[in-house]
Design a protein that fits this description.
Elements (H helix, E strand, L loop, with lengths): L1 E2 L2 E2 L1 H4 L4 E2 L7 E6 L4 H12 L4 E9 L5 E9 L2 H10 L7
Parallel strand pairs: 3-5
Antiparallel strand pairs: 1-2, 4-6, 5-6
């Protein structure tokens, strides 16, 4: 992706979005709704530049029942902070 006249090398090599979540990534989980998964991927691609992981997961709610979730992990902790503060899709949770 070209942003502000610069090519992101991770995008060019197609290694930006990982298929697994390394242990050192900063992780956040949210409940799965509608097409939230694809919307978040688009927002991250447009607004952040580091490596990330996004995948489906299962959470236990307060009644100990399983609930579908989206697990999102970032290599850079400040990108997780930016995501939590600026992503408009999180306000509906």
């Amino acid at each position: 992706m070209i942003r502000k006249g610069k090519i992101n090398p991770l995008d060019a090599l197609e290694v930006r979005r990982l298929e697994f979540c390394p242990a050192y990534f900063e992780v956040y989980q949210i409940a799965m709704r509608y097409n939230l998964h694809q919307s978040i991927i688009s927002w991250i691609d447009d607004n952040l530049s580091g490596r990330y992981y996004i995948g489906k997961n299962v959470l236990l709610d307060e009644n100990q029942s399983m609930q579908a979730a989206v697990k999102i992990g970032f290599e850079k902790p400040k990108e997780l902070s930016h995501f939590l503060l600026a992503c408009p899709y999180l306000k509906y949770n």
